[in-house]
Every structure is written in structure tokens, then in C-alpha cells.
Amino acid sequence: MALLFGIGYAGIIFEESLAFNKSGVGLLMAVSLWVIRSIGAPSTEVAVSELTHASAEVSEIIFFLLGAMTIVEIVDAHQGFKLVTDNITTRKPRTLLWVVGLVTFLLSSILDNLTSTIVMVSLLRKLVPPSEYRKLLGAVVVIAANAGGAWTPIGDVTTTMLWIHGQISTLPAMKALIIPSAVSLAVPLALLSLTSEVNGTGQDSPNVLSSKQMAPRGLLVFFVGIGALVFVPVFKALTGLPPFMGMLLGLGVLWILTDAIHYGESDRQTLKVPQALSRIDTQGTLFFLGILLSVSSLEAAGILRELANYLDAHIPNIELIASAIGVVSAIIDNVPLVAATMGMYDLISFPQDSEFWQLVAYCAGTGGSMLIIGSAAGVAFMGMEKVDFFWYLRKVSGVAFAGYAAGIAAYLAIHNLHLSLPTTVAQVPFLSGL
User: Fold this and answer.
1) 212 or 355: whose pLDDT is higher?
2) Are 32 and 294 spatial neighbours (Cβ–Cβ below 8 Å)?
3) Do the Cβ atoms of 80 and 221 come closer than 8 Å?
4) Region at 81 (left for phi over 0; alpha for psi -120 to 50; beta for the rest)
């Protein structure tokens, strides 16, 4: 299974050379791995049970992704993002690079990193025409979304898992991880600011939306759409139901709203949900499905657990183990990797909010930025902008690794010096309610 996964992974990496679509390769790899798993399992019933469990988890992410992409597409169709892009007045490449990074970082700490990436990449399409520079901005979005999601319990799936199962708590984790997460973004931004794509001449570009007007009631659609995205973690906190249910609720509300406000307007069918559904990146979603099902087969076969045990046996230092988990998460999805780590170590060995769990939250959250298929944010960016694996490897992986390592160093320095943000942050109503 590991060999087949490696071959399939190579097929995805060399998509351009082989002329095979990565979505087809991903789906073929997923089905093949599960066939092998069904043969190697104690019985077919066991394999079917494992596949059913994996499919339930993967479906939650796919439904979440489809809902978020559709909501963003509806807002985009109404030119709702003009409200944001018109307020980003700078067109200086270096300044815009930092603005995009900081906005994504803050947005991802409230929303999740996947939704933030979808929203921000959609905004970039309105700010910058297709170019090498826009690809770099999109890569910044991926790094910033993963960094922003790593320091709050609702910003990333892995931190949410650790939070729900009691390995980390809200305020101690936020105070310990916000500075390392910010460093993991600031270092790549500083390095990318020195590149020729950012410093080259002729990069200042006009607002590509300047000739377009916001659609009728576009402002209403914008606020309802963004409100639906922001409401997802609130819905989860109130009901205890999975986040994708909150996303589907928001999509349903927006669907009814757009049907109502455009009732009888036959010339505005493109502003309604059925047309938005036809425009979302279904191909990218199927690729995402294939990757997640493939990784879940490795988890079911115990390969990921063996990998975690190998790390435990050969790397006695907990800082190095956590760092290695982050590096591996750039290759293999961080969700099952963190799940395997949680199964390896209990709260007796490492109590709640110990250095190990906080480092795991940071490393698993930000380590995926080192490869474009190392995180949900990267996969979404890859699908939306059709970015090549090797382009990201050449242009971004090095600076992402520099930021990742700098963040670990910042955490260890803060932890050893017993520094943290002032405890008065606990008085902020939004934070204290989490």
C-alpha cells in the first residue's frame, strides 16, 4: 500500500509531464488502495466498516468544501467582493503582499484555513490579473491561512481535534502559539518581498473590478454570505453538530435569499445558486476526495501508526518528534497524522497544554505549507488557480520551511523564557467565550 501510494503520489507530482489529470490519478489511487486494504483486512466486513467510517469523515470535509465554494461563488457573482477590494487601495506589490498575508492570517483565526483560502484567492482574482505575481500572492494566502489557523482552536482541523479531546485548552494554547504562528508568516513574507516577482518593474496594476458594478442587492448578499461563513464555528458551538452542517445551513439561507431577491428576473439566472454550482471547481474537489480517501486507507491499515511509532522509537526528543510530525504533514494529510499521535501519547504522559501538545498543534498546522498538497488550503489553491506542484516547490517551499523553523525557534524561546501574551487577553469577550 505504501508503494502504491508513492506511485500515485508521483503521478500527481508529475501531472504535467505525464499528461494525466491529478483528479483521475487521485481517485484511481484511492480505490486501488482500498481494494488492497479489503484483501489484507481480517475480513471484508472489517474493511467495509473502516471505509464507511473514513467516508463519513471525508464526506464532512467535501460537503464543507462544496458549501464554502458555492457561497463564495454566489458572493463573487454579485461582485460583493468589491466592498473589500475597493478598500485595499494599494497596488504596490510589496505592500499588497503584506496586506494579503495579514488579512488572511486574521481571517483564518476566526474562520478555518480552508474557507479563508477560498475567500482570499477569490479576492485576488479581483485585485490582480493572472501572472506569476498573483501565484505568489496565492502562495502567501496558503502560508498565512495555515499560520492563522494554528493558534486558535477553531482555525484548523487539527487544533480543533486537540481542543475537543482535551490535549490543549483555548487561552493557554492561543497565548503560547500566536507569536510562533505570526513568525512563521512574517519570515516568508520578508523573504518573498525580496524576489524579482515582487520587486520587478511594471507590477503596479489597476483594480480589475473598476469597470464592473456591484449587482443589485449585492451588498446584502455579501454580508449574508460572509455572515454564513463566520457563523459556522458559532453553529458548531451551539449545536455540537459538525461544521459542514453549519455551512449547509448558510448555503440554504443564501439559496432562498437569492431566489427571493431575483424572483422573476430571467436575465439574472447567473446570480442564483444553480448557476454558481456549475461554476465551482468540481475537478479540484474530486482530487481532494481521492487524496483524503487514500490517506484514510493508510490509516486503516495501520501504516500511519507504524510511522508514528517509528518516530517515537528513533527520536527521543519531544521537540524533534513534533517537528518531524510537521514535516511529514507536508507529505501526508495532517488530520490522520495528528490522530495517530493522539493515539500514541495519552494525557498521563503529556498533560493538557504541555509543550508537546502545543508544538504538535503548531507543527501540524503550519508544516503543511511546505508542499502545495500538504494542507487543505494548498489543495484548494492548487485547484482554483491551477498551480503546478513543482512551481510551488521551487518558489515557495524553501521560504515556507524557513518560516516553519523560525516559528519553532520562537516557541522554544518563549517557552523556555516563560514569556506569553498578557493574561488580560482573557478579558476579551470573544476569546473568553470560546
Assistant:
1) 355
2) no
3) yes
4) alpha
Q: What is the pLDDT of residues 285-315, one digit of tens each?
A: 787 788 778 878 887 888 777 776 777 777 7
C-alpha separations of 70 from 153, 200, 280 in Å: 25, 35, 6
For cell 516557541, what's the residue?
411
Q: Is 195 left (phi over 0), alpha (psi -120 to 50) or beta?
A: beta
* Nearest residue to 358 via CA among 163, 139, 138: 163
Residue given cell 501526508 in the structure block:
332
To which residue does cell 492570517 refer? 105
Determine contact, residues 356/345, Cβ cutoff 8 Å: yes
* Euclidean distance between CA atoms 17 and 11, whole angstroms: 9
322's grid cell: 513534533
CA dihedral 189→193→194→199, nearest 10 degrees, is: 160
| pLDDT for residue 201 | 43
Q: What is the DSSP letter of 270?
A: G
Residue 294 in contact with residue 31, Cβ under 8 Å? no
Residue with cell 518558489: 395
Q: Which residues contact 429 (CB under 8 A, 6 or more apart)?
A: none
Residue 428 pLDDT = 44
Mean pLDDT of 16-36: 82
The separation between the first and the last C-alpha atoms of the chain, rounded to the nearest angstrom, is 41
Q: How far, in Å, CA of 176 to CA of 415, rounded? A: 8
Q: What percent of the chain has pLDDT over 70?
A: 85
191: which residues sit within 8 A by CB, 6+ positions away? 399, 402
